[in-house]
Amino acid sequence: MVYSMTGFARVEAREEWGELVWEVRSVNHRYLETFFRLPDELRAFEVKCRDLAAKKLKRGKLDCQLRFKKQLSEQQSLQLNEGLTRQVIHLCHEIENDLPHASSLNALDILRWPGVVKEPELEMDTVGSSVLRSFESVLDELAGMRAGEGERLKDMLLQRCDAIDGIVGKVRANRPQVIDAIRDKLNQRLQDLTEKPDMDRLEQELVFQAQKLDIDEELDRLESHLVEVRDVLGRKEAIGRRLDFLMQELNREANTLGSKSSHVETTRASVDLKVLIEQMREQVQNIE
Length: 288
Description:
The structure is a single chain. The protein is of the alpha+beta class. The chain has helices at about 45-55, 80-100, 105-110, 125-175, 175-190, 200-210, 215-235, 240-260, 265-285; strands at about 5-15, 20-25, 30-35, 60-70, 80, 115-120. The mean pLDDT is about 85.
């Protein structure tokens, strides 16, 4: 299974004590790097969430955001902090004495004062279990999205492999014609000479030129690397770095093929190969 490193997932979890909403975005990165934005009261669970991400994913830069909305159940009730409430009321009366035209005391404003109303304490073990469970769910959803994108990337890479195979086969099939063209070129030069040519020397020069311009090794290595690419695409592991290395090797052989070329069709084939390999390399950067 091929996994892309880009994706987005969102999961909601509703409980009697509130609502959790996880949103995770993933982009390309050489290693696995996670960033969390959690409410202060849930920040203690960041380490366990980070460990979960490391078990599920191998590479990618993750931006993980958790939103938390508390909700009281019918069995729970708000409590008034009587001591703080009296202090707030007393201070309000003092201000009214100093400022006769100040607005009158509003009970709702007092209730809004931080700490006046005491909310029931959450069972953090229960909340934590839901945080981790929902985070695991959002990671599974993200992995599914990355897998779908990865399969599309795999299909594209296999199509490019087939195209490269076709070019390599065509270059190999044209090799006899290239050798004949070299022979004809040497013969033409010999015909321009006034002295009778040395045919043995001609054959020696032809062999020398053929060896100098021999590209069989490059073609063999190109085919070998393509076999390896197809094999790697079938593995059930993180393969992005291995594929990136193979793209470098393919590009090296394509460059060597171009530098040895003495025929316009072979030169054109080298350029076409490099275009296809660059397309593959760009997409390989997205694979885990």
